[in-house]
Write a structure and sequence with these properties.
Layout: E1 9-12, H1 18-26, E2 31-34, H2 38-45, H3 56-61, E3 65-68, E4 79-82, H4 97-107, E5 115-118, H5 126-139, E6 142-143, E7 157-162, E8 181-183, H6 188-199, E9 206-208, H7 212-243, H8 247-254, H9 276-286, H10 293-302, H11 304-318, E10 327-331, H12 347-356, E11 360-364, H13 370-377, E12 392-395, H14 400-403, H15 407-410, E13 420-423, H16 430-435, E14 439-442
Parallel strand pairs: 1-2, 1-4, 2-3, 4-5, 5-7, 6-7, 8-9, 10-11, 10-12, 12-13, 13-14
Helix pairs in contact: 4-5, 7-9, 7-10, 11-12
C-alpha cells in the first residue's frame, strides 16, 4: 500500500471523536462516515452537528465525505478507523460491547491487506487481545504483526494500528488538527503507513509509538493523570473547608510559583476522565496488581457531587431553612462547560441527593438537549428565572452564559432574605455574592 495513494477510508462511529476526524479526511480523500444511529446520519446529511464539534461550513467543506448506516457500503474501504465509545458498566468494569460490535461489522467486509485502526480508549493490550480475535473470526483472515509478518501470506491477512483520540469536547482552540497525534501499527511498515495517513491531516504533527500497546497505555494514563490531579485538589477543598480557609485563595497563592500546576476542584464526569482510569485499574488487577493511588483518586472524584449537595444542605440548615420544603435550582447538567454531552454527568448525582431529602429540584441548561436529558436521566429541563425563583441556586457547570453573569444578576433568581449560592466552579467573587445577600458555598 503506497502512502501516496491511500484506499477509501471508513470512520466507524460519528460522535465527538469520529465526526471531526471524518470531516478532516473528507476534505482530502474519499471517506465513508458510518454510524448505526440513523437519526445522527440524517442530521449530518442535512449539514447539522448536534455535538457542536463541527460547523455547517466545515461539514460542507468535506466534499469527499459520505454518510451511511449500511455495512455493505464499507466493502469499498481499505482502511477502517474505529471511534466508538468505551464506557464502563454499573460496577465500573470496562464495557467493550461497542468495540466488539464495531469489530464484527468491519470483519464481515474486511479484505486482505486492509488496515484497522482503533482510536477508542482502552487498556493496554485490548486491541490485540479483544478486537483482533473478533476481526479474525468474522473475516477468516489472519492478523499480521511484527512476530509473524514473514510467515503470513499478505493476501490472506490484515493489519492493525492504534492512534488514541485526544479530542477535548467543546474546545474551539485545541481542535483535532492542532493536537499532536500518537500513531502505531502492527508491523514497522504499517506503522509508517498509519503515521503518514494521520500526518496528511494533522498539522500539529505525529508521534510514532514503538508498539500498539505503548500507544494504548499512553492514552489511558493521560486522562488518569488528570483525574488524579483533580482528585488531589478536590481532597484539598474538603480539608480546607474544615480549616476554615478558601480553597481558591490557597490555590491562587500557591500558583504564584512558576511550576505549580493550575488544577481546580470540581466534578469529574464525562466519557474520558471519569471513565478511563477504570480501564487501567481493570488491567492492573487482571495481571495481579492492586492499584491504590488511582482508585483512591476515583473514589474522591466520584463522591464530589454528593459532597457538594450535602454541604449545601448543611449550610441551609445553618441558615434556619426548612430543607425538605425548599426549592433547589441547578444551573448546568452537561459534564463540562459549553459542550452538550451529558454522558456520565455527575450533576445527576447531586440532583438525586437533593431529591433524597425531599426537596423540589429544577435543572436548567442552555446547551444540553432537553429530549436527551429526559430520556437518559428522567429529568425535565426547566426555566430558572425571576418568574420561577428558587431558595437555593447551584451553579454546577461553567457555561459561558453563566460565567458572564454577576452575583447581582443571580440574585433575582432566588427568593427569600438569605438564599444559598453553591458556586461549584468558583465562577463568582464570593465577597460580592455575600454582599448581595447570598450565603455562599464553593469548592
Amino acid at each position: 500500500m503506497s502512502p501516496d495513494n491511500f484506499p477509501p477510508l471508513a470512520v466507524i462511529g460519528l460522535g465527538y471523536v469520529g465526526l471531526p476526524l471524518a470531516v478532516e479526511f473528507g476534505r482530502v480523500q474519499p471517506v465513508i462516515g458510518f454510524d448505526i444511529n440513523g437519526q445522527r446520519v440524517a442530521e449530518l446529511r442535512n449539514g447539522h452537528d448536534s455535538t457542536l464539534e463541527t460547523t455547517s461550513e466545515q461539514l460542507a467543506a468535506a466534499t469527499q465525505l459520505a454518510y451511511s448506516t449500511e455495512a455493505q457500503d464499507l466493502e469499498q474501504c481499505g482502511i477502517f478507523i474505529v471511534t466508538v465509545p468505551t464506557p464502563v458498566d454499573e460496577a465500573n468494569n470496562p464495557d467493550l460491547t461497542p468495540l466488539v460490535k464495531a469489530s464484527e461489522t468491519i470483519g464481515r467486509v474486511l479484505k486482505p491487506g486492509a488496515i484497522v485502526i482503533y482510536e477508542s480508549t482502552v487498556y493496554p493490550g485490548a486491541t490485540e487481545e479483544v478486537c483482533v480475535p473478533v476481526l479474525e473470526k468474522a473475516s477468516g483472515l489472519t492478523y499480521i504483526h511484527a512476530g509473524n509478518a514473514g510467515e503470513v501470506d499478505p493476501d490472506k491477512g490484515f493489519y492493525c494500528g492504534y492512534s488514541p483520540e485526544r479530542i477535548n469536547p467543546g474546545d474551539k482552540v485545541n481542535t483535532l488538527t492542532k493536537i499532536k497525534k500518537i500513531t502505531s501499527g502492527s508491523t514497522p511498515a504499517i506503522a509508517k503507513v498509519v503515521d503518514q495517513l494521520y500526518a496528511s491531516v494533522i498539522t500539529a504533527g505525529t508521534y510514532p509509538a514503538s508498539s500498539i500497546k505503548v500507544a494504548e497505555a499512553a492514552k489511558v494514563i493521560e486522562n488518569t493523570q488528570r483525574d488524579l490531579n483533580i482528585a488531589f485538589v478536590n481532597e484539598l477543598s474538603v480539608l480546607f473547608a474544615r480549616l476554615g480557609i478558601d480553597t481558591v485563595e490557597v490555590l491562587e497563592a500557591a500558583g504564584s510559583k512558576w511550576n505549580f500546576l493550575p488544577f481546580r476542584p470540581g466534578l469529574v464526569g464525562g466519557h474520558c476522565i471519569g471513565v478511563d482510569p477504570y480501564y487501567l485499574t481493570h488491567k492492573a488487577q487482571a495481571v495481579g496488581y492492586n492499584p491504590q493511588v488511582i482508585l483512591a483518586g476515583r473514589r474522591i472524584n466520584d463522591n464530589m457531587a454528593r459532597y457538594v449537595a450535602r454541604n449545601t444542605i448543611k449550610l441551609m440548615l445553618q441558615q434556619g431553612m426548612d430543607a425538605p420544603r425548599c426549592k433547589v435550582g441547578i444551573l448546568g447538567i452537561t459534564f463540562k462547560e459549553n459542550c452538550p454531552d451529558i454522558r456520565n454527568s455527575k450533576v445527576v448525582d447531586m440532583v438525586r441527593e437533593f431529591q433524597g431529602w425531599g426537596m423540589q429540584v429544577v435543572v436548567s441548561d442552555p446547551v444540553a438537549d432537553a429530549d436527551e436529558v429526559r430520556n437518559e436521566y428522567g429529568i425535565e429541563l426547566q426555566a430558572i428565572d425571576a418568574a420561577h425563583p428558587v431558595d437555593v441556586l447551584v451553579v454546577a457547570v461553567g457555561h459561558s452564559a453563566y460565567r458572564a453573569m454577576t452575583p447581582a444578576e443571580l440574585r433575582p433568581l432566588c427568593r427569600g432574605d438569605k438564599p444559598i449560592l453553591a458556586d461549584v466552579k468558583s465562577l463568582y467573587d464570593r465577597h460580592d455574592a455575600a454582599a448581595r445577600g447570598f450565603a455562599v458555598f464553593r469548592l
